[in-house]
Specification:
This protein is of the alpha/beta class. It has 2 domains: about 1-120 and about 305-360, 3-Layer(aba) Sandwich (Rossmann fold); about 130-305, Rossmann fold, CATH 3.40.50.720. It contains 13 helices and 15 strands. It has an 8-stranded mixed β-sheet with strand order 3-2-1-4-5-6-14-15, with helices on both faces. This is Alanine dehydrogenase.
Length: about 375
């Protein structure tokens, strides 16, 4: 099979779909890998690094798409890429279709096979290809939140860890999944007081067992959310409903009950955000202010640490890329139910019901 690795062109996205080590595993199996010129530079990998493991370097993104049976990316295609995608071409990447009807319609029109990293799901319900980026994003949420709490960038002027004689800052984490636990771990490591909310008591018991005593758990409901937003300095939204839009746990009317300079970091922004006032931002302009509350809504947070993120992503995606390349998508998905759950759109038809539900569609195909 021919596999294409294009350069990511989303704003400030420096990750790349595969490391040279991953390319080596494919070329030694006699697959042809095309890498767009300078695709890996943002992650620290040169054209020569790829050539040394058997990749063929192509000058343009158009050449990569035209030459490849399968495209392996990091982020969803953006408008400039829509017309490059070919019928029956496999596109393996993060899609987050439920947050973008325009992207969904474009991929339906393309008649491609769209396999989404974020819905590849193990039998136990874990999401192996989403997990490493959620780990990165959860940890980064605290790094970024701590920075934007500084007064020069309109935050409350709070040091999360405090100092002797001054109490630490308070962090509220919505969701005790991968993002929430990593955020809580980082915040606790800085010395902040952390409250983590979830509706899953098993997750809360786990958090209670593994976290230090200054991380406290509470059941998530609107009453508790409204109570805690009044006293916490940094609020991290880490709620995920697989393949669907995130629920709005923080509504616009709640902002008036927060202290000016409170920082909201919505890690669920890829799935529409779990805060009503969230909008997608970029690393170039990461924050905006509504009612004196600082909002951070960068949709590709791990893109700010591309070396770490690219290595972590290739570690988990490569086994599935190899299966797709060796067997073709139909046989690979028949043999691996985990991979099959990643199928979102197949040749003009939505095959993942949460996408249709997100847009209220009954007819899930295009002619």
């Amino acid at each position: 099979m021919t596999i294409g690795i294009p350069k990511e062109i989303k704003n400030n996205e420096s990750r790349v779909g595969m490391t040279p080590a991953g390319v080596f595993e494919l070329t030694k199996r006699n697959h042809t890998v095309y890498v767009q010129k300078e695709a890996g530079e943002g992650s620290g990998f040169s054209n020569l690094d790829y050539e040394n493991v058997g990749a063929i370097i192509l000058d343009s993104i158009q050449q990569v798409y035209q030459s490849s049976d399968m495209i392996v990316k990091v982020k969803e295609p953006i408008a400039e890429e829509y017309d490059l995608i070919q019928p029956r071409q496999i596109v393996f990447t993060y899609f987050h279709f439920a947050s973008s009807e325009r992207l969904t319609l474009a991929m339906l029109k393309s008649k491609a096979i769209c396999i989404a990293y974020e819905t590849v799901e193990d039998e136990d319900g874990t999401l192996p290809l989403l997990t490493p980026m959620s780990e990165v994003a959860g940890r980064m949420a605290i790094q970024q939140g701590a920075k934007y709490l500084e007064k020069p960038i309109k935050g409350r002027g709070v040091l999360l860890g405090g100092v002797p004689g001054v109490p630490p800052g308070k962090v509220l984490v919505l969701g005790a999944g991968v993002v929430g636990i990593q955020a809580a771990k980082m915040a606790a490591g800085l010395g902040a007081h952390v409250t983590i909310l979830d509706v899953n008591m098993k997750r809360l018991r786990y958090v209670n067992d593994v976290m230090p005593s200054h991380v406290v758990t509470e059941f998530s409901n609107e009453f508790n959310v409204r109570k805690h937003i009044q006293t916490h300095d940094l609020i991290v939204g880490g709620v995920l409903i697989k393949g669907a839009k995130a629920p709005k746990l923080i509504t616009k009317d709640m902002l008036k009950n927060m202290r000016p300079g409170t920082v909201l970091v919505d890690v669920a922004v890829d799935q529409g955000g779990c805060m009503e006032t969230t909008k997608v931002t970029t690393h170039e302009n990461p924050t905006f202010i509504v009612d004196d509350i600082v909002h951070y809504g960068v949709a590709n947070m791990p893109g700010a640490v591309p070396y770490t993120s690219t290595l972590a992503l290739t570690n988990v995606t490569l086994p599935y890329v190899i299966k797709l390349a060796d067997k073709g998508w139909k046989q690979a998905c028949q043999d691996d139910k985990t991979l099959a759950r990643g199928l979102n759109i197949v040749e003009g038809e939505v095959v993942y019901k949460e996408i249709s539900e997100a847009f209220g569609w009954e007819n899930t195909s295009v002619n």
